């Protein structure tokens, strides 16, 4: 088989919508995703052969059917993309960019081993993950992210505990709490950091609410489930610490002031065996950054997000993006962006002429504008309060779990080396971010800590340099890159 026209990284709503559009207009596509089955985060499904608890919602089922029914598509499930390398650049390509303009090698590792795909275009739709929030006890067994808890329920039909507390600031937490209740879990409290009064909407909010009525209805339905199950939902509340030995046994919650700081004398200890955290999301931009794509800081939208033009092309020729990597915005917007990015790729590959691409893009852009109006409003209202969350960290709090670096080590490094003020410099001195997760877990917390300690903004502190492999792979995967007889798969 010849090399694919396009490699799509990620089979969530953005990737699925892109695949369907690319296939419809004659592009050959290879889709790579770490999960066992397409669907991404929101339409995550049990492994084949498992009896599903409930199928994906109608919109998801239709999108999955459309994409998986598209001819000319190869599905590489259970496979990780660990780098987007320069075409035939050998190990030099690890720094991203491409000596052959517009051509890249997509380095994958999966059940059949290493593959280096050489498409004519790359579309990154790698989604997002839960914002990790360090505080005393956050590394105890039993402390999970809300998305992690949801993955147990969706993919395995399992409840990872008996007594749940959910803490965070993102509306998805309510949806997860309702899913847990429906699955038979005992949810003892949902603690939300924003105050109720922060959520009152003005006229602009009302207009946005009309645009996003589907999501609002989902949130209200979740609240109804929680009310019926008598689950307390408390606003203006933060989780200060988690305790237990060896596993989680209780959490301490506190009321917060207007700025999100715990109010003295309001601590409450609540017994539980599972704490699910949902303070927001981090856009999965590591592959884009590793490939050299420009990013911008947008705290409410997931931190660093990939810069793009009106066709969702990045600053690197031959690489486009769609979905949460452009900013966390929900499944509907991700799918709309997937279609638009696909039209842009088809235009660039000469599979659509400019007039036809423009005509097809017009209604998609209209829908995208409608989505963005609502989403921006929602994001600004539920933006993670990074400064308040950084205030929870004590000297002993682990910041980097892979390298066991504590907040005290970071602060000491800053005292010992007063010239240090970037995340990358602190990484080099402390080793935070050098472990197997390559900083996915510690980078947001460490960057905020450095920002607080040095009085700089997160933009000034910056991110860790993103390098291949962006995810853990065996050494033979790296060896294959410079081996001319290596397993360069064709399509
Ligand atoms: C944990 C979690 C749970 C969520 N649950 C809900 C929910 O219940 N309801 C809701 O409305 N919204 C939910 N969201 C938000 C929702 O995920 C998004 O709105 C939507 O799924 C975004 O679509 P996407 O295509 O951009 O990304 P995603 O759906 O996240 O899809 C990205 C895909 O890329 C794959 N991927 C990433 N990196 C690599 C790599 N290096 N190699 C190979 N594959 C890779 C991932 O496995 C994933 O399947 C959730 C988000 C998260 C993070």
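^ Assign residues to that structure.
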């Amino acid at each position: 088989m010849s090399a694919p026209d396009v490699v799509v990284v990620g089979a969530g709503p953005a990737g699925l919508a892109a695949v369907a559009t690319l296939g419809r207009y004659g592009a050959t596509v290879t889709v790579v995703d770490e999960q066992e089955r397409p669907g991404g985060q929101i339409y995550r499904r049990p492994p084949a052969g498992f009896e599903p608890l409930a199928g994906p919602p109608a919109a998801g089922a239709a999108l999955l059917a459309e994409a998986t029914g598209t001819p000319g598509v190869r599905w590489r499930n259970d496979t990780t993309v660990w780098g987007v390398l320069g075409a035939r650049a050998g190990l030099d390509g690890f720094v991203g960019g491409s000596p052959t303009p517009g051509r890249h090698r997509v380095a994958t590792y999966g059940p059949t081993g290493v593959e280096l795909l050489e498409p004519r275009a790359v579309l990154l739709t790698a989604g997002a993950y839960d914002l990790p929030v360090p505080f005393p006890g956050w590394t105890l067994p039993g402390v999970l992210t809300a998305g992690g808890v949801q993955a147990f329920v969706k993919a395995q039909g399992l409840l990872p505990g008996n007594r749940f507390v959910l803490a965070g600031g993102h509306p998805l937490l309510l949806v997860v709490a309702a899913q847990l209740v429906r699955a038979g879990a005992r949810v003892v409290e949902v603690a939300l950091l924003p105050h109720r009064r922060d959520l009152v909407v003005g006229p602009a909010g009302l207009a946005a609410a009309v645009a996003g009525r589907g999501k609002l209805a989902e949130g209200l339905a979740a609240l109804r489930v929680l009310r019926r199950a008598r689950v307390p939902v408390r606003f203006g509340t933060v989780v200060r610490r988690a305790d237990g030995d060896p596993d989680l046994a209780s959490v301490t919650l506190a009321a917060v002031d207007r700025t999100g700081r715990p109010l003295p004398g309001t601590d409450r200890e609540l017994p539980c065996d599972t704490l699910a955290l949902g303070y927001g999301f981090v856009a999965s931009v590591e592959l884009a950054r590793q490939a050299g794509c420009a990013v911008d800081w947008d705290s409410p939208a997931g931190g660093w997000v990939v810069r793009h033009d009106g066709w969702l092309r990045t600053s690197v020729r031959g690489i486009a993006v769609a979905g949460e990597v452009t900013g966390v915005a929900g499944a509907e917007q991700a799918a709309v962006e997937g279609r638009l990015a696909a039209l842009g790729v088809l235009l660039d590959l000469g599979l659509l002429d400019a007039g036809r691409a423009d005509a097809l893009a017009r209604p998609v852009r209209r829908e995208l504008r409608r989505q963005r109006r609502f989403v921006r409003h929602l994001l600004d209202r539920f933006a993670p309060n990074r400064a308040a969350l950084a205030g929870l960290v004590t000297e002993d709090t682990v910041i980097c779990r892979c390298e066991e670096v504590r907040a005290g080590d970071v602060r000491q490094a800053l005292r010992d080396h007063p010239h240090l003020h970037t995340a990358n410099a602190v990484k080099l001195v402390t080793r935070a971010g050098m472990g197997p997760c390559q900083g996915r877990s510690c980078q947001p917390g460490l960057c905020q800590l450095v920002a607080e300690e040095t009085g700089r903004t997160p933009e000034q502190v910056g991110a860790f340099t993103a390098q291949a492999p962006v995810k853990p792979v065996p050494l033979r995967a790296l060896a294959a890159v410079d081996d001319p007889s290596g397993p360069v798969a064709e399509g």
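The first strand starts at residue 6 and ends at 9.
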